[in-house]
Input
Amino acid sequence: MNLSFSEEDLKFQSEVRSFIKENYPSEIKEKMDNGVPVSKDDIVTWQKILSKKGWFAINWPEEHGGSGWSVTQKFIFQNELAEANTPNIVPFGVSMCGPVIYTFGTEEQKERFLPDIRDNNVWWCQGYSEPGSGSDLASLKTKAEKKGDKYIVNGTKTWTTMAQHADWIFCLVRTDSSGIKQQGISFLLIDMKSPGVEVKPIITIDGSHEVNMVYLDNVEVPAENLIGEEGAGWSIAKFLLAHERTGIGGIPHLKREIRRLRQITEELPLNEGFLKDDQLFMDKLNKVEIDLLSAEFTELRTLASISAGGHPGPESSILKIGGTDLQQSLSDLYVEALGYYAHPFMSEEDLKSNEKRIGPDFAANVMPHYLNYRKVSIYGGSNEVQRNVIAKAVLGL
Amino acid sequence: MDFLISDEQKQLQDLIHQFIQKDYPFDVREKLVKTEEGFSKDFWKTFSQFGLLAMPFSEEDGGFNGGPVDIMIILEAFGTGLIVEPYIPNIVLSGNLVSKLGSKDQKDAILPNLLNGDMQLAFAFSEPQSRFDLNDVTTAAEKDGDGYKLNGYKCVVMNGPAADKLIVSARTAGSQLNENGISLFIVDRETKGVSLRDYSNVDGSKASELTLEDVVLTKDALLGKQDKAFSTIEEVVNLATLAISAEAIGIMQKMNELTLEYTKTREQFGQALSQFQALQHRMVDTFMVHEQTKSLLLMAAAKMNDKSEDAVKSISALKYQVGNAAKLIGEEAIQLHGGMGVTEEMSIGHYFKRLTTIRTIFGNADYHLKKYSSL
Output
C-alpha cells in the first residue's frame, strides 16, 4: 500500500495545473470566482478547450478518445479542475450517455454520436424521472409505440436538468406493458428539435431555473435511435445510475469549498476578532473535514478497484450517500458562517449587475446553494433508494 | 399547575386560525411577498382591528396588557399560516422599546399610530461584526451641541423598507463590547444622512442595510436614558426570541402535517410512501421533536410571564432547541416530499425557507448553547 504520488504523478499534476492556468478563460474564471451564474456558452467554451486537448472524455476507452490515464492521474486531474474553480463538467453526455453508447450501442451509433459528445458539439439531457415515477423509476409510463421504422413517443419527463440548453435527450421509455414493470423499458435517443417536444421550466426554492418538465407529444423517433435491444432499458439504466452515483459525490469540489470556508473564518469579522475565534463553529468545520477525508478515501478505494478491472457497482451507492451528506453539511456551515447575511436574496440579474453585493462578497450564493442542495439527497436515486441498494446488493438482505 | 390557556386566549388563537383559513391561503401570501411592499397594509389594519397590534402594551399605552403567553399564541398561529406581516419588528421589538423607554411625547407621537396600523417601525441593532451580540455596537453617537450626531452601519434591518421611523442602537460611551454606554435613538427615515438599501430576504420578508452618515438629531431623539439602553434591549430581544420560537413551532407543526399528508397520497413501488417503515420512523422522530420543542416553548413563556429568575436561561434553552429542531424538521420535510419539496410551486419549500432563517434570527443554536452555558 502506498498512498503518495510518484514523481511521474507529480509531473503530471504540474502539467495539468499549467494547462489550466494558461487556457482557462479569464472571463469565465472571474464569473466563477464571483459567484456569477455561468452561461451555456461559458460551459461549452470551457469543455471544448478540454476536448481539444483530449482531456474531456477521460474515462472513455482510448479507441473513442479516452485518456488512458491511471486512476491516480484521473484523481489528480479532477482535483486540479476543482482547485482552479472551473465550471463543473456537465455529465449528461460525457459521463452518462457516452458510456451507454460505447457499451451498448452498435458501431454505427458509436460513430454517429460519440465524436459529438467528446468534442462538445451536442448538449445532452436525461429523460428518466416522471411525475409519477421518482424513486420507483421502473414504474415509468412514457410510451414508445413502434410504427414501421419509427417510434411514436408520448409522455412526460420531469426534473430534466438543463433541458433548456439541450440538443438531445436520452430517455427511458416503455415499449411493452405486458410483463413486470422492469421489462418492457427501452433506451431511446430523441432529438429535442423533433416536433412534439416541449420544455417547461420548473423554478426551485433557490429561485433558479435549472430543471424542467419535458413533454413528449406524438414525437416521431427513428427506430435506429434505440440503444440496445427493445426491453434492455432497465439494465442499461442500472448501469448508468451506477456511473451517475459515483460522479455526484463531488469530492474534489468539496475539498476546495472547505478550504475556502476555512479561509473565510479568518476574514469574517466577529466582535473584535474573526469567526475563527468561535470554537463551536470551528469544531463543526473540522468534523466535516474529517467526514470528507473518509469519503475521499472511500472514493479512492472504489476507483482503485475499478482500475483493477471492476466496474462501479453497489459500492457507488456509499459514495452517493456520503458525498451528498457532505455537500449538504458544508452548504449549511456556510449559512451558519454568515449569520444574518445569509438572508438577503439576490436574483440572477442582481448577481450579474455591477452593484455592490449585500454583505460579504461570497454571501449571495450561500443560502441559494443550501436550499438548492436539498436536491442532492433526492436526485440520482434518493438516498433512501441508495440504502435499499446497499441493503439488497451488498448486505444481501 | 396547568398548561391550559384562558378562554380569551383560545378565542384569539381561533380568530387567527380562521383568518388564515379564510383570507390568507398560500397563493395570497405568495402574491403579497412578490409586491413591492412585501406584505398587505390591509391585513395589517385587520390585525389592528383584531387587537393583535395592541396586545403587549399597557392599558395606559392603549394596549391590552398582554404577556409573553399572548405573544406566544399569536406567533405560533402566525407560523402555521406563514404570515409575512412584520409583527415582530413592529410590535415585539420597536413598539416595546418605545413603550418601556419612551417619554410621554415620544409615546404620543408613535404608539397610537403604531397600534392602529398607520405607522411602521424597525429596530436596527445588528452590525456586520456583531453577529448576535447585542452589546457589540460600533455605530457612534457623539454629542453635537444639544443633540447628537450619528455615524455607523446597521445590517439586515428587519422591516427596514417599510419603516417610517427606525430605532437605532448606538454607542455614546465605552468600547466596542461594553454593555454600558449603549443608547437608543428614534430616527426618521427621511433624516439627512440616513440611507437605506432595501431588499427582500429569502424567506419573503424585507430588510435594509442602513448607513448613517453625520445624522444630526435633537436631544428628543434619545429613547430612554443615555448609555443605559442595554438591559432593555436585551429584555425586548428575549421576548422577540420567544416570539420567533413560537412562530417556528407553528411552522414545524404545519410542515409535519403537510409531510404526513403528502406521504399518504404519494405512491411509489405500489404503495403510499407513508407505508414504508423507514419513513414512518422518521416522521415519528420529527413529530417527537416538535412536541418536545413545544414543551420548552411553554416552559419559557411561563417563566417569562412569572419573571422567574431563570427566564433568560430558559429562552436560550428554547432557542437552542428550536435551532436544532428547525434543521431536522425542515430538512426531513423537504426530503420526504422528494423533488416536489424543492419547487417554488409547493408551500412546503416556503415554510422551509422561513424556518431556516429563524434558525439564525436572534442567535443560532451554537450561540444560545454558549449563552446557556454561561448563565
In short: The mean pLDDT of chain B is 97. Chain B has eleven helices and ten strands.
